[in-house]
Write a structure and sequence with these properties.
Blueprint: E1 6-11, H1 16-27, E2 33-39, H2 45-52, E3 57-59, H3 68-79, E4 86-89, H4 98-103, E5 108-112, H5 124-131, E6 135-142, E7 152-159, H6 166-190, E8 193-196, E9 199-202, E10 205-206, E11 211-214
Helix pairs in contact: 1-6
The structure holds 5-O-phosphono-beta-D-ribofuranosylamine.
Length: about 220
């Protein structure tokens, strides 16, 4: 890749992870070019965050399209105006079709709030509490056709606190997401981390297990 890694961020909501990317670029720890923020919801607060940071925004509302494939084609056509090297899903609450994933093969990142492969899907925090797990966290992974099933890159984990609510746990997990997601994306932008043959490669070697970082109760890196 010549020049900085052109990155499109896809959001549906508050965009705190988007904000973490914006802040990391501002502080000089992340060297991606944040080219465009695309939302499928016109009222997503992340659009305001992007505008405040001077990043172009675009909105494609899924409700206006007959089906997933048509919506995905519209999203890809719009994103391709920026010729992105990398797509970062930052709370983008749409399942992507196979055609879309193929179009950007190996160039889409997601963050999922669980220690994958445990707890793909929704309501992860409550499910972790219900199961009485001792650890919870979040996983940055490459996106494949399988929902939350693509090869992992980096996991941040923290201890579950006895008696805490799902909202409290979610807030603590978000604190670590804001640290690990820009970090993993930086590795991809640098070419240290790659997706090849359906697997994650780190520093030129296959890595079937993610790098795991452990955080304390308050989300500080240990
Ligand atoms: C994050 O918690 C992430 O794990 C999930 O969606 C959430 C997005 O939050 N994929 P935000 O919009 O970045 O605040």
């Amino acid at each position: 890749m010549s020049g900085r890694c052109k990155t499109a961020l896809l959001i549906s909501g508050s965009g705190t992870n988007l904000q973490a990317f914006i802040d990391a670029v501002r502080h000089g720890s992340l060297h991606l070019e944040l080219s465009v923020v695309l939302s499928n919801k016109a009222d997503a607060f992340g659009i305001v965050r992007a505008r405040n940071a001077g990043i172009p925004t675009t909105c494609i509302e899924h409700g206006r399209y007959a089906d997933r494939a048509t919506f995905d084609r519209a999203v890809a056509a719009k994103l391709d105006e920026w010729q992105p090297d990398l797509l970062v899903l930052a709370g983008f609450m749409r399942i992507l079709s196979a055609g879309f994933v193929d179009h950007y093969a190996g160039r889409i990142l997601n963050i999922h709030p669980a220690l994958l492969p445990a707890y793909p899907g929704l309501d992860t925090h409550q499910r972790v509490l219900d199961a009485g797990d001792k650890w919870h966290g979040s996983t940055v992974h490459f996106v494949t056709e399988e929902l939350d099933g693509g090869p992992p890159i980096l996991q941040g984990r923290l201890p579950v606190v006895s008696g805490e609510s799902s909202a409290q746990l979610a807030a603590r997990v978000q604190t670590i997401e804001h640290q690990i997601y820009p970090e993993a994306a930086e590795w991809v932008g640098e070419g240290r981390v790659e997706f090849r043959d359906g697997r994650t490669w780190i520093d030129g070697a296959v890595a079937d297990e993610p790098i795991v970082q452990t955080f304390g109760r308050e989300g500080t890196r240990l």
